Amino acid sequence: MTSPEANKAVVRRFIAEIFAAGSREAADELIAPDAVFHGYPFGDDPRAGMRAAIERVSAGLSDVVFTVHELVAEGDLVSVRLTSAATQSGPFMGMPPSGRRYEIEELHLFRVRDSRVVEHWHQFDQLGLMRQLGVGRGG
């Protein structure tokens, strides 16, 4: 069994290299082939699903920053509270480019096995995101 500290290091890399930097190579390295991403429609190949998500996000967002506030690990689970911020410079989540910047709080729970993410849950301030990007205010 891997130590909680080692699992936290995997999650830090995941956030920095996949979420913030959009590294497709890191997705292949840090995601187990049988990983389950709850709430994401990745299908049977979570690595390919993440690479496709990276493409979509990279086309829609720029100046992406993730600020980790807390990482807590117990056993194979790592929970993270963070702030994400980005500028919507292209189409994103079905919305046309707005040029607006958002900053929201997020919670993530990762299960790590053999230095790879095998399960992930995610909650975020979707209403705050939409409001900051101008949805419902006439653009």
Topology diagram in text:
Blueprint: H1 4-20, H2 24-30, E1 31-37, H3 46-60, E2 61-74, E3 77-88, E4 101-113, E5 116-124, H4 126-132
Parallel strand pairs: 1-5
Antiparallel strand pairs: 2-3, 3-4, 4-5
Quick synopsis:
The protein is an alpha+beta fold.
What are the key terms here?
single chain; 139 residues; alpha+beta; Nuclear Transport Factor 2, Chain: A; five-stranded mixed beta sheet; 4 helices
Describe the structure.
The chain is an alpha+beta fold and 139 residues long. The chain has a single domain, classed as Roll (Nuclear Transport Factor 2, Chain: A), CATH 3.10.450.50. The chain has helices at residues 4-20, 24-30, 46-60, 126-132; strands at residues 31-37, 61-74, 77-88, 101-113, 116-124. Strands 1-5-4-3-2 form a five-stranded mixed beta sheet. Strand 4 (101-113) and strand 5 form a beta hairpin. Helix 1 packs antiparallel against helix 2 (24-30).
